[in-house]
Structures are given as structure tokens and as C-alpha cells.
Amino acid sequence: MKDAVSSAFAICLADGLIGSGKATPAKRALGRRTEPAPGVQAPRGSQPMRRLLIAGSAIAGLFACSAAMAQSLTNTPALLSGPVAYAAGESETPSVSPAFDPTALVDLGGAGHFVILSKSGITDVPASDVTGNVGTSPITGAADHLSCAEVSGKVYSVDNAGPPPCSIKAPNKLTNAVHDMQTAYTDAAGRSATITELGGGNIGGLTLAPAIYSWSTNVTIPSDVRLKGGSHAVWIFQISKNLIVSSGKAIVLRGHAQAQNVFWQVAGKVALGTTSHFEGIILSKTLIAMRTGASINGRLLAQTAATLQMNKISAP
To answer: Using CA atoms, how far apart are residues 85 and 94, in angstroms rounded to an integer?
Structure first.
């Protein structure tokens, strides 16, 4: 707050003294003539008193401007001091609010046509509920254990061994999609982080603003995490080891945050605990394991395998 008041005072002073020729509130305050109160007659020749009244009015106007400006600055999320603040309306819920960052989306290319894309297969304990397209490559379609009844979308394989009768042989489409998946992973991993090592890897209970977050450790989610932002806001999470979501916990979107704008780049494995819920696109270098009853609004893009156990998976 002290920094906001100092900044506001400087803005108002510059606006009033050296700003443009426009009639700004500060200039009106600083240049206003001040007359005696109604019913009070100023003594003749009292120029010193008049100047004093004018100066007093100008100073009052300057401080009024400063107070309003300070309130505006304090209520601007991009100017919150420090990496951690408290979210409005969420008492004692830590909220990470970095400076405004116009982060670009990670381009998924052809991988964006799939809700599950795996290089080494998809195992399944039925019945799962998958909404969107599914693909395996370069491994044979026989490594896709989902049944056609579990998929509301298309199932693509590199050969004719995919789940009958719905499997579509499309080796070129899958090769391009896997290439784009790997490119997207590299892109997400190569972005410059704005916040590093938050919580030592434990981000449970936090409300996270749009930014690029990076960890050299495992990231654990032992309690719900909220992502709060606008409809075009982007989150990128760079995780050098494993991502572990505890059973029954969730990623929760707040404001107008969109799952399609949330990217989890994970060098290790991803484990989504029993009945947990997840939001966003997972770009995993290795395994993505969904435990019994876990759900995701997003995509599973795995450079090794994806394992399912009666899960609900929906494309964002």
C-alpha cells in the first residue's frame, strides 16, 4: 500500500504540474481559484491570505487525487507486491498474482485433434467414458485396449489391429500428430518461467493466476488448486519430475479460465489419484496414469503409455 500511495502521489503531481495541456483533475485542483465561504468577506488587499487559500486547496486536491489513484493501483492485480497475495473473497487462501504476462498458447498442431494420444499404448480397466478422438503410434493398434463402446469419437491406429470395428487406419495422420505432440512438449518446456519453485513443489490450496510456473522437483497437489483468470488467460506448468494429484482432490477453474489454455509439461510421470479431477492439457514425457474414478477435462498426450481405470475423459 505504501508503494501504491507513493506511485499515486507522483502520478498526480506530474499530471498537475508537467502533464499535457488537458484539463485533468489534478490540474483543476492545483489551479483552482479559492473564494471565501459564503457570507464571509475577505479583507481588502489580503493577497497573502488568498494565496494561502489557493495553496491549501491545491494541496487538498493533490492528496485527494493521490488517494483515488492509490486505491486504483492497489485494486489492480498486476501491481500486487510480491509473488503471493490473498484472493479477494477467499479469506486466507493464498493467491499467486504475478505481473500481467501475455503468454502465448502452446500450439498442439495435429495433437490437438486427440483427447488421448500415446506412443506406446493405452491400457484400460472398463468401463471408461472417453469423449474425443484416440490414437496410438508408432505402436500397433493392438496396444489400444479401449473398446469402441467407451469412445465417443474416432479411434486411430497405424495398422488394422486397432479396436474393432471402429478403428481407422491412419499412419500418416498419427505420425504427424505424434511429431506435433513432441514439438508442443519442447515448446512448453522452453518457455521462460515467471515463477519458480513455488511452495517447494507443494501447491495444494493455492489460487494461481495466469503465468509460467517452473519446478525442478516433484509437484504434489494434496488439496484443491484453483486457477483463476479470464477466458484468454494462459497457464504453463513446467515440472522436471513427477506430478501427483492426491485422491479426491481437484484442479478447479475460477473466473472464466479455460481448460484448453492450461498446459502441464511433465518430464516424469503423471498420477491422478482415485476420484480426483483434473483440468488442462497434459504433455508428459513418460506415463500418464489415471487411478480408479479419476476424471479430466483436457487431453492426455503421453510420449509413453496412458493407463485408465474406469475414468471420464473429455476434450476441452
So the answer is: 6
Q: Which residues are CB-neighbours of 247 under 8 A, at least 6 positions away?
A: 273, 274, 275, 276, 291
ω into residue 165 within 30 of 0, thus cis? yes
pLDDT band at 226 (very low <50, low <70, confident <90, very high): very high
Distance CA 189, CA 262 (A): 14
Cα 209-82-97 angle, rounded to 5 deg: 10
pLDDT, tens only, 140-185 = 999 999 999 999 999 999 999 999 999 999 999 999 999 999 999 9
**Of 13, 299, 295, 301, nearest to 128 (Cα)?**
295
Sign of the dihedral through C-alpha 52, 57, 61, 64: positive
Question: Which cell numbers in the block locate residue 286?
Answer: 513418460
- For 230, phi and psi rounded to 5 degrees? -80, 180
d(CA 35, CA 289): 77
Asked if 115 contacts 153 with a C-beta cutoff of 8 angstroms, the reply is: yes
Distance from the Cα of residue 150 to its chain's centroid = 31
